[in-house]
């Protein structure tokens, strides 16, 4: 059982990356408009995050340093500061979106408007981070998020057009630029940088040593494909229900409805529980990551394994980030749309995050004989080019399509 | 052991004998004749000094103008993926910002002394 629970870090990290609130709605929207024709993007994303999370986990297990700690060493303080600002902006926007997402899930359950829930959610989030053990949080939200598996069962009951899975083209009536915009957004969300920051900082919180190399790999190769599969669940159930009707998806309520159509109230209940856990998990992941990145750039003490007084600056960053997120939400900005802006910052941050990881994973000074093999390097380089291409294309396509409209 | 200051030391994490983060090697101090390394400097003001310009002044100002902390190089036990000190970090003066936030904000919240396990 203990072995089984040891993979919840990977599951929680992946859920926070693949099925956070922005992804839930945008993936469902992709299914409604483009059917299953984006399935390949999810596959490309899963392989990419697995390749780099494996490298990052290996670096951390062997050197006992989280990867963000090493980015400044390799990029120098100036370029690393650009990375820090971009990464922090992404993380903060996502945090705001997730707090809004939990509030939206509570609105679905209670009927009370989500803005009333925002301060309460933020308070509970902060209390959880202040008082509850890292491993406990990871288990509760990692496992509860798994109730989204109901979507995969629903997929087979609803039966979308599976033949589209092999097509790499927009269906009739949709154009290529929008198709690519959605593809880049799905890819960027699979590779969001806070996933590796959180995953490796979590490894340090759990005191990984070189003996935990296998544990790190099991986390990666189980957690991330599972997260991707859950994202596929949203894509496929939406494709089955909305695409034939020509309907668009732009709210959380629409995204969870197909599960209800498949399994009635039980299905709807399970999927809402899953969304609640996934978004709350993502909120924890992003608020901790905000603290991790700032603290690790400046070399401050950080982490939940220390008493809060021993890491006062880290806890202040976490607290201030949560307050900033609440302030952003109270301007009544749409939380679902917030994560779409993330793409702009991703274009800067993704290459600056993954290049140093690839470099360090080849450095014998850190890794000894555990440096990258030929497979990891080949895939790493290929993905670096994919990331660069996506980064370069992101902003022009975004302008061209008016954010995929 | 030969070390390259720029490659092996600058921007590397300093940890105490228990592995708790102390700071980054934001700058170094050399002897008068610049032949030996006498101390590591850590703190935003040291980092700001290296940046220079407006950005450097901002980073220094964010530290409340506190002087960088000086860690004599004799205290370094080993350099690998981090710079390991031979002592516990409590023996060094605490960083000014950390102490201020502890005294005025974090330390005042109930539960601030609770260890995780």
From TrEMBL, chain A:
<feature type="transmembrane region" description="Helical">
    <location>
        <begin position="179"/>
        <end position="199"/>
    </location>
</feature>
<keyword id="KW-0472">Membrane</keyword>
<feature type="transmembrane region" description="Helical">
    <location>
        <begin position="220"/>
        <end position="242"/>
    </location>
</feature>
<feature type="transmembrane region" description="Helical">
    <location>
        <begin position="112"/>
        <end position="129"/>
    </location>
</feature>
<protein>
    <submittedName>
        <fullName>Divalent metal cation transporter</fullName>
    </submittedName>
</protein>
<keyword id="KW-0813">Transport</keyword>
<dbReference type="Pfam" id="PF01566">
    <property type="entry name" value="Nramp"/>
</dbReference>
<feature type="transmembrane region" description="Helical">
    <location>
        <begin position="262"/>
        <end position="283"/>
    </location>
</feature>
<keyword id="KW-0812">Transmembrane</keyword>
<feature type="transmembrane region" description="Helical">
    <location>
        <begin position="141"/>
        <end position="159"/>
    </location>
</feature>
<feature type="transmembrane region" description="Helical">
    <location>
        <begin position="311"/>
        <end position="330"/>
    </location>
</feature>
<feature type="transmembrane region" description="Helical">
    <location>
        <begin position="80"/>
        <end position="106"/>
    </location>
</feature>
<dbReference type="InterPro" id="IPR001046">
    <property type="entry name" value="NRAMP_fam"/>
</dbReference>
<feature type="transmembrane region" description="Helical">
    <location>
        <begin position="342"/>
        <end position="361"/>
    </location>
</feature>
<keyword id="KW-1133">Transmembrane helix</keyword>
<feature type="transmembrane region" description="Helical">
    <location>
        <begin position="40"/>
        <end position="59"/>
    </location>
</feature>
<feature type="transmembrane region" description="Helical">
    <location>
        <begin position="381"/>
        <end position="403"/>
    </location>
</feature>
UniProtKB/TrEMBL annotation, chain B:
<feature type="domain" description="PRC-barrel">
    <location>
        <begin position="8"/>
        <end position="81"/>
    </location>
</feature>
<dbReference type="Pfam" id="PF05239">
    <property type="entry name" value="PRC"/>
</dbReference>
<dbReference type="InterPro" id="IPR027275">
    <property type="entry name" value="PRC-brl_dom"/>
</dbReference>
<protein>
    <submittedName>
        <fullName>PRC-barrel domain-containing protein</fullName>
    </submittedName>
</protein>
